[in-house]
Amino acid sequence: MELRHLKYFLAVAEELNFTKAAEKLCISQPPLSRQIIELETEIGARLFHRNNKKVILTEAGKYFEKEVTALFQDLEQITIKTKKIAQNVSGEFSIAYISSIYSGVISELIQHLKAAFPYVSFKLFEISTTKQISALELGKIDLGIIRSPVKSPKIKSQLWFQDGFSVVYNKKLIQITTEEEISDLKEETFVFFNKDYAPHYHEVLLELCAFYGFTPKVVHESNNINSIVQLVKNGLGISIVPSNIARNNSDPEIGFIELKKVNLFTDVSLITSKGDESEITKSAINFLLNFPKK
């Protein structure tokens, strides 16, 4: 069965006259009759009752007309949507980000993209770096925001910014005010990211503690930076978080001390599939690269 068979059928069903349908289709009547017979033979059902006086649809023909008409309507919508996707004005665009990215910039990014591409459905996913890499390799996301490094031949990585580190603590429970006092925290309990969830980040935190002369007693673990900060606020320990979080947190019960003496940073990168040249991706990356760093 080919598309032309369906078009010929609809023409005859509309005109209920083979001669008029043939004229409408700009073909002669005998080929049109043969095409309808071929269609009926393939389906295994008579679609028309016809004689020298009139042509009418059978019950099977009425059902087939209804379904084929709906099929062509769907096909038209598919064609329109495909064209829009090709023009980067429709479809879906999935963005993944790590929890330690300030949510305000994510919100502004989506607002920017929705204004530029109003027909696009934007989806957000808060997932770890390792899962983002896997998702991007499988084509499940279009843009990722991770903490480097990333090693994949299928992925293009671009540095967004370098982030420092800050100790976060409950002001009521911990009495420190300067970086020089960080070494006094060696007896305190710590809240860290799970090693399996963010292995590179976990190793960096251990290096930071070693720089200040102690090995942290990690008692609690979480896979979400906001949960870590909340655990600290609740008095379950102290932690070390990206300075980006510290700069965007104004909770009066929580204190932050930036670790300026140690020369350790974490790279926050934007990742896309190699070869992705879509206008949406370009617009998203350009917005983020020009977003003011607080």
Kindly describe this structure.
- With about 290 residues, the protein is an alpha/beta fold.
- About 45% of the residues lie in helices and about 25% in strands.
- It contains ten helices and twelve strands.
- Helix 1 crosses helix 3 and helix 5 packs across helix 10.
- The model has no long low-confidence stretch (mean pLDDT about 90).
- About 25% of the residues are buried.
- The radius of gyration is 32 Å and the shape is rod-shaped.
- The longest helix has 28 residues.
Overview in brief:
This protein has 294 residues and is of the alpha/beta class. It has 10 helices and 12 strands. The mean pLDDT is 89.
Do you know the CATH topology of the largest domain? D-Maltodextrin-Binding Protein, domain 2
Distance between the termini: 62 Å
**CATH class placement of the largest domain:** Alpha Beta
CATH superfamily of the largest domain: Periplasmic binding protein-like II
Shape: rod-shaped
What is the gyration radius calculated from CA atoms? 32 Å
CATH A-level architecture of the largest domain: 3-Layer(aba) Sandwich
What structural class do the secondary elements suggest? Answer: alpha/beta
| Main sheet characteristics | 5 strands, mixed
Helix-strand topology string: HHHEEHEHEHEEEEHEHEHEEH
Strand content: 15-25%
- How helical, in percent, are the residues? 40-55%
The number of helical segments is 10
Number of domains: 3
Low-confidence stretches: none
